[in-house]
Amino acid sequence: MRVLGIETSCDETGVAVYDTARPGIDGLRAHAVYSQIALHAQYGGVVPELASRDHVRKLLPLVRQTLDEAGLSPADLDGVAYTAGPGLVGALLVGAGVARALAWGLDLPAIAVHHMEGHLLAPLLEAPDLVPPFVALLVSGGHTQLVAVDAIGSYRLLGETLDDAAGEAFDKTAKLMGLPYPGGPQLAKLAEQGTPGRFRFARPMTDRPGLDFSFSGLKTQVLLAWKGSDQSDATRADIARGFEDAVVDTLAIKCERALDAAGCETLVVAGGVGANRRLRAKLAAMAERRGGRVCFPRPALCTDNGAMIAFAGALRLQAGQHDDAAVRVAPRWDMASLPAVRAGEG
């Protein structure tokens, strides 16, 4: 089954074709991502209306480009998958409208995909032997969640952020220290030059039981440290390192607790912050110490992309799931409400 995947949940237009006849990452026939970073940089953040308009401008040319790179025509497709939420409602409607129109015009089944399920399943592209149960850390600009995966499509929320997501905290902290947009990657790069231990910040909510997160207080600690410092380049790097260490340690502590709570030793990490090198090293060391396993997607598949949507959609289409012709999106969507993909279906 050849599935076209479309991702337009925020400020990146992603398109991919996944072929289930090929195993794992080999099934990814082609994929392309167009980022709107330059468009939104002058505003210091994503402007929803501008994001929607840019998706309108770029999506169909990107579909044509991706099909050409895959050596396919629209008639060669067997299904269409698209992000229906969560995300910006206008941006979601662009992708959903195009996907539903393509499916209707080509007489193909189409499936609405949960954006975070796409992230969660992305590591399976490069680890096809990975099967539930496992624990997933979904960590991005909009989400920080620990999820118990009992089966594909069967998810239990173990913990989530009570305020800022980790990626959001990275971006806001970078902005308050004067780093350019998008701040999170800039802060992580700067932290590589920082002196470990010169600034030590709290590891929020690790001094009590539970699997929830909170990063807003950490952001305030950084602000106070920055305002009270000499604000030199060296100090900026040292504060960035202290902040990054605090976030990474907090995520690692909570992941270990989640593995204990779920009674398993396999951890999957996905989402934009999953590309952070220090986080990857910390979690890999934890897994090795426990005799377990941690799986990450390659950095290009950590950020929003069409490949994860094509893959997640292909799993559900193969299982016989599809949606009617209505164009529906869900800016807020509980992943626990998704139907399971049962073994042997399809």
Automatic annotation (TrEMBL):
Substrate binds at L138, V139, S140, G141, G142, D171, G184, N276. It holds the Pfam family TsaD. Binds 1 Fe(2+) ion per subunit. Its EC number is 2.3.1.234. Fe cation binds at H115, H119, D304. It catalyses: L-threonylcarbamoyladenylate + adenosine(37) in tRNA = N(6)-L-threonylcarbamoyladenosine(37) in tRNA + AMP + H(+). The keyword Transport does not apply. Its cofactor is Fe(2+). GO terms for molecular function: tRNA N(6)-L-threonylcarbamoyladenine synthase activity. It is found in: Cytoplasm. It comes from the Bacteria. CDD domains: ASKHA_NBD_TsaD_bac. Keywords: Acyltransferase, Cytoplasm, Iron, Metal-binding, Transferase, tRNA processing. Its main location: cytoplasm. Residues 28-311 form the Gcp-like domain. Gene3D superfamilies: 3.30.420.40. Required for the formation of a threonylcarbamoyl group on adenosine at position 37 (t(6)A37) in tRNAs that read codons beginning with adenine. Is involved in the transfer of the threonylcarbamoyl moiety of threonylcarbamoyl-AMP (TC-AMP) to the N6 group of A37, together with TsaE and TsaB. TsaD likely plays a direct catalytic role in this reaction. Belongs to the KAE1 / TsaD family. This is tRNA N6-adenosine threonylcarbamoyltransferase. It comes from Cognatiluteimonas sedimenti.
